[in-house]
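Morning run. Coffee first, then this:
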Amino acid sequence: MKKRMRQWIGILLTVSIFFIGTSSLARAGEREESLGELHATCAVLMDGDSGRVLYGKEEETARPNASTTKVMTCILALELGEGDEKVQISARAAAQPDVQLNLREGETYYLEDLLYSLMLRSHNDTAVAIAEHIGGSVEEFAKLMNEKAREIGCENTHFVTPNGLDDSDEGGVHSTTARDLALIMRYAIANPTFLKISQTREYSFSDISGKRQFVVINTNAFLDMMDGVIAGKTGFTADAGYCYVCAWQQDGRTLIVALLGCGWPNNKNYKWQDTRQLLTYGEEHYQLVSYWREPDLHTVTVQDGIPEDGELYEKACVDLVCECPKEDKTEQILLGDKEKIQIRCRTPAMLEAPVKAGTQVGTVSFYLDGKLFRQYPVVTRDTVEKISFAWCVDQIFHRFFH
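And here it is:
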């Protein structure tokens, strides 16, 4: 009998797992069908507010990422330097291969001007000059880049160069993942100066001596291809292929797209096609909604507690309250067409006296498709004292003598 029961349980578990797996595959298939085919080897569509990956294709696979690296170089320069600092050009910086501003050894430039050269035209010599100025050397700056990547939440990123040229060191190949690259852009767009530089179409400057004049034009053509694009960085090397990362904002929503290995020469426009496809998918299928729902919290009996009305034979009870900041109750999150929010309350069936007001006794948790994203404490509203001998004597005295 027991053997037969185990067989039936095994069959039921197998069937359950099959249906769960089939359901998951069906959902993935629906999303893929809705989104369509992408050219990129690795891709991510991310919610720029929460950092949640809305769509991923090989998003955790590390690949060379070419000049999208310069987003990190720029943000470190903005955080660790000042725009009016003077940057002297070294022989190493001047010797960098194309694309280059054609800097000359011994020249000096303002850091701010070089950041426009870095982000608008993606000059490799400029990137090295900035790295040496901020970090003292390319190698020391690479350490700062990797430290910052870890701070941001990148899990599989290794930077070797400030310009993204294919390279490696004892730590591995210069690379990142689509998810990590999206996280870096998410961090960068919180800096107003980064946004200002990224959105500039054309910028003029000179070296500090005034002998050489430059005009740099933004290579991020996607700024004018789709409404709402606020920042972006292109990249290409032989190993990386075409890469792109961009941020989009509209109607309170922020979306980030990161693409790695999105075609090679003769396929230069694949990155624009994939980016538009991902952003359009995000725009059409994800909307901001309020997640807060008032939890149904029951009154809890307090064992050996003094009742509120002081009656000897009454039960002592205490009300429970969910402590949620007022601003969270009006907060909105990005939710997909078929995504659901679940609320789970964990509270005790009974408490032991004494109970102090404000004591945490449970939690209210909000889940998005099974994953926890907000949790709040449940506390007691009032204090309930424990029944004592003195209280019992007092009750008897009042009952029989009053």
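The chain is about 35% helix and 25% strand. Good start to the day.
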